[in-house]
Amino acid sequence: MATGIVKWFSATKGYGFIKPDDGEADVFVHIRSVEKAGYTSLAEGARISFERKTGSSGKVSADNLRIG
Length: 68
Known about the structure:
CATH superfamily: Nucleic acid-binding proteins
Largest sheet: 5 strands, antiparallel
Radius of gyration: 11 Å
Strand order of the largest sheet: 3-2-1-4-5
Shape: globular
Order of helices and strands: EEEHEE
Number of strands: 5
Number of domains: 1
Structural class: mainly beta
């Protein structure tokens, strides 16, 4: 499981980005993954654990989120 901080997230737009601790590119996070984890939003700067998921288009997104 990867870790990082929430770079920014907009519940209104329904997405945001996580800056991973490993220095890789920022990871997209969709509101569905946030809601699936039991949250309604993510606070900027929050520590987060996540799994990278590669979609059919080849784009990487965050899933299985855990705050803290």
